[in-house]
Amino acid sequence: MKKLTLASTALCALIAAPALAEEWRPTQPMTMVIGFAPGGSTDIQGRVLARTLEEYFGQPVNVVNQPGGGGAVALTRFLNAEPDGHTFMFGVQLGLTFSPIVTEVAYEIDDFRYAGTLVGGQFGVVAAGDAPYQTFEELIAYGKENPMTYAQQLPMDEAIMRIIAEQEGIDLAIVPTGGGGGMAPLLLGGEVDYAFSGGTHAQYTPTGEMNVLAFLTAERSPFYPDVPTLEELGYPYAIDDFRSFFLPGDTPDEIVEAFENAARFAVEHEPFVETTVENTLHPIVFMDAEETEATIRSIREANEALMAQ
Amino acid sequence: MPRSDFWSGLAVAAFGLLALFWMIPNYAGSNPFAQMPPGLVPSIGAWAMVICGVIIAAKGLIQMLREGAMPLSADLHWDAVGWAAWPFAYVAVAIWFMSFIKLTWFGAFLIGGMLFLLGERRWWMILGCSVVPVVLLYILSVYLMRVGVV
Amino acid sequence: MDFSAVGAAASEALTLASFIGIGGGVLLGYIVGVIPGLSRSVAISIAIPMTFYMSPFIAISFLIGLSKGTAAGSAVSAILLNAPGEASSAATALDGYPLAKQGKPKTALQIGLIASVMGDILATIILIFVAIPFARVALMFGPYEMAAILAFALVFIAGLSGGNIFKGLAAGGLGIFLGTIGLDNQTGLPRLTFGYTELMDGMPLIAVAIGTLALSEMFVQSEKLRYDRENMSVALKKDADDRITMPIFKRILPTILRGTGVGTFVGALPGLGPSVGSFMSYGMAQKAAKEPEKFGKGEPKGIAASESADNAVIPAALIPLFGLGIPGNVSAALLIGAFAIHGITVGPLLLRDNPELLYSIFAGMILASLIMLVLGWYGLMFFAQITRVPPHVVIPIVIFFCLAGMMLQGYGTFGLIILMAFALLGYLMKKYDYSFVTFLVAFIITPMLELNLRQSIILSRGNWEILLNRPIAMFFIACTVIALVALIIRTFKKEQAVANAPAD
After folding, report:
1. What percent of chain A has pLDDT over 90?
2. CA atoms of C338 and C345, how far apart (whole Å)
3. Which long-range contacts (CB under 8 A, 24 or more apart) does C373-382 make?
4. Contact state of C186 with A185 under an 8 Å Cβ cutoff
């Protein structure tokens, strides 16, 4: 199977070689696959992105939702997509960096190509504005004296907090929440002491009701330049998630390149940037194809190490 | 309706037992850290089905014994069963079709065929009722929702 | 109240787009309501996929307008056909049909319409004034209270929506079981998915809702066609005397006010629903009347009592929804799904974080009532014609829209198979008298219930005494137990009465 894939890639490259001079352009309407149900933040971003791409490629872009399993269903079906650039996915990396660790899925990172990242995550740890601790250090100090409760949203952030609590000798109870919408009432109602936030905090930090104590991402958030990351605080853990273009595994280089340029165009395009930042509260992060794939692989390794503990 | 109570109660209880002794132990998973195992809530649902199903069936049985009725009825009207069943078969075939052809392309025949089977014979009625909804769907999916033809 | 937000809300409610959206919802609801056999929840479940790309405000107002429209429209077929478009308008037919037969169909329709609109507007105003303070109080509810209230709502719905508590609980049990399918919300590991990636997010709500509500109902209806194809609609004639007059209006006004009160009360309690409200109101109007023997023979008060309560239930059912995030009936449960699709969590935080949206929805609801009045008044002739559409024409078209609605969701063939399975389940539940309402509500609230239960268990660290400091939670746990015992006793008593009665 692998040999065949290689051979066909080579064949494609051969055929495509003369056309390299000019950038690849679609010749028929395109289909954008989104691995989530309509209405979520990925879907909202994706639909604005579709308009942006129409402008860039000059072909209509239809959006198809294939919800299920945090993107796993869409990725599974995407295995059979034609590698001609007319079907592509705007996807969340969690389907590649986390789902394969905990469940059996039919795909692997090697089965797809990655043509550029557009949107970043801003996972963080938050506390209520009136809590007796305003930084992560104060939280740890407070936790050594008092039993603490933490509201999780992903298995990874639960694992990180469990490890830190063990290391620092904190008596920690961890509760699940139904996503960001469920976290806010728990934290603001004083039922839990601190919580994970996937982006919900952006709604509450301007009023001072919530405080970001630390970011779980590898780098600081551009919106909160003063808040440190966990790694800076001396805990060598990070979880990240980016939204990128996925293409079928046999897609020729020139198409990948065209999508990379499309991503470059989109992150500068006013409507897309505005929707992403203001409506869905996600930062714009651009990465080229190579960097995207490297990031996915390193996040996957980090998650594997974390879940093994 | 003691007879239908009896059989439906048995079916509910049987499904509950299946869930309790096969589905939940094998597929619910476990969580060593959690104070509440993932199988707890499904088990509550399954127990509710088992207990209530047994009570419904038992009450039906007692009433049947009192009335001297038999658990199975001989006067089953096959044509009535057939009449109730054909729409299910019709829709099931339509769903099978939908894995090859888009609904929009054969939707008119789907509606028209069923109208005919339900006894409609006026051709203009069949034509109008089958074409208009399909056109509406086409406009909705292609122009308003932009998901392409479904 | 924040007046700038109210002003902004009112201006949003008055844009052309919202006008078209809400008006379209009411019109569609009216038509659905008029067609016997097409019920409110059928319409909402099929309409949800259509609202994806409307703004959240228009989408929700469209759906609420739709439910309001069905409540008003169902009076038309109750009066002209003696076959209520909704079960909740059955009480309307008791007096509406006789009055229509006496040559006053238009009067009957106008009484029904005015009672509907008044009940609707008054209950909406009550909703606005109750939901906001209620939501403030409800913000103090933690996981303990929520778990207790959800358990109470579930038992209450199980007992009241069907006659037999055991069948209700069995249906609820199935709903709970199926509601737990999907990724475990703490570990992220699949639970009861049997290896299907498609089930990782749970059974798709739209498939379950369209299957058990809409598609199965079409199978039930087509089965009925074998025995009953009659369609005898009272025709409207030109008759200058056949209209509502001031004396009639003055006579029925107190009845409308009482009906609104009853409807609002019943609507705010989970599980009772519009049928209970309209019959209760009808009974009370009959008791209060000077000439109770006139009821059932074309008494305008009977129509007014039933219709005002029927319509008042719909806004009132949103009180627990906006206040606590708990659905009181199937339509409200479907609205939770619709909100979720638009990324909004319904509940007390909605008022805090999204006051403009909430005020816009309220403004939209009032607008919907007014549109309903205009549409109903001037569209009388048109809606009267719809009662002549025979059911065998409706069935294939609705089946088509069920399949189309599912395809629009993007679940593919898998979704269609699930849809078919739930249609079969819904058909069997209707046939054997298991409450599919309880099943669906249990299915929808199980994830919420489980999450709150799990949070309570973890936060209490296994220490039950913590409940002593939670009087509200204790109160609802006590209510749940009392309701359960009372409903079981009631079921047994009823069976006893049936068993003792001479066999027929």
Report:
1. 29
2. 10
3. C373/C113, C373/C114, C373/C117, C375/C23, C375/C26, C375/C27, C375/C30, C375/C69, C376/C30, C376/C72, C376/C113, C376/C116, C376/C117, C377/C110, C377/C113, C379/C30, C380/C106, C380/C109, C380/C110, C380/C236, C381/C236
4. no
Pairing of strands A194-197, A148-152: parallel
Q: Is B42 exposed, middle or buried (0-12, 13-18, 19+ CB in 10 A)?
A: buried
Q: Does B143 touch chain A (CB under 8 A)?
A: no
Residue B73 within any structural domain of the chain: no
Size of interface A-B (CB pairs under 8 A): 14
> Which residue in the set B28, B36, B49 is minimally distant from C174, CB to CB?
B49
Question: Is residue B72 assigned to a domain?
Answer: no
Alpha helices in chain B (DSSP H): 2-18, 24-27, 40-67, 78-98, 103-117, 123-138
Angle at C433 between CA C431 and CA C435, to 5 degrees: 120
Question: What percentage of residues in chain A have a pLDDT greater than 70?
Answer: 89
Number of domains comprising chain B: 2
Torsion C51-C55-C61-C64 (CA) sign: positive
Whether the ipTM is more than 0.90: the answer is yes
- B110, part of any domain: yes
What is the mean pLDDT of each successive set of 10 residues along chain C, which is 504 residues long? 61 77 90 79 79 76 89 87 78 89 89 93 91 78 86 81 81 94 77 81 83 89 78 69 84 93 85 78 87 87 92 89 78 79 73 79 90 90 83 88 83 88 94 87 86 88 81 89 87 70 46
Q: Could you tell me which of A116, A61, A111 has the C-alpha nearest to residue A91?
A: A116
CA pair distance C58, C173, nearest whole angstrom: 35
Confidence of residue A27 (pLDDT cuts 50, 70, 90): confident
Give residue B30's domain range: 2-67
Query: Has residue B149 been placed in a domain?
Result: no
- CA-to-CA distance for C109 and A46, rounded, in angstroms? 48
Q: What is the DSSP letter of A92?
A: E
Residue A65's closest chain B neighbor by CA? Answer: B147
Tell me if chain C has a CB within 8 Å of the CB of A90.
Answer: no
Residue B1 class from Cβ within 10 Å (0-12 exposed, 13-18 middle, 19+ buried)?
exposed
Q: Which residues of B106-143 are buried (b: 16+ CB within 10 A; e: fewer)?
A: bbbebbbbbbeebebeeeeebeebbeebbeebbebbbe
**Which of C395, A203, A114, C408 lies closest to B137 in space, CA to CA?**
C408
A195: three-class secondary structure by DSSP: strand
Residues of B in contact with C462 (CB under 8 A): 35
The length of chain B, given as a count of residues = 150
Tell me how many residue pairs between chain A and chain C have CB atoms under 8 A apart. 114
Interface chains of chain C (3 or more CB pairs under 8 Å): A, B
Domain boundaries, chain C: 3-499
Cβ–Cβ below 8 Å for A62 and B33:
no
Instruction: Check whether B91 has a pLDDT greater than 80.
Output: yes
pTM exceeding the 0.90 threshold for the entire prediction: no
Q: Which 3 state secondary structure label does DSSP give B100?
A: coil
Looking at beta carbons, which residues of chain B come within 8 Å of A87?
none
Q: Which two tokens stand for residue C353?
A: 């974080």
Across the interface, of B45, B91, B125, the residue whose CB is closest to C177 is B45
Q: What tokens appear for C154 in the block? A: 């579930």
- Are B13 and B32 members of one domain? yes
B87 & B49 share domain: no
Who's near B119: CB < 8 A, 6+ residues apart?
A: C225, C229, C392
Amino acid at C230: E
Last residue of a domain, one of B48, B67, B86: B67
- Indicate the pairing of strand A242-248 with strand A61-65: unpaired
Antiparallel, parallel or unpaired: β A194-197 and A112-120: unpaired
Domains of chain A: 2-121+241-308 (3.40.190.150), 124-215 (3.40.190.10)
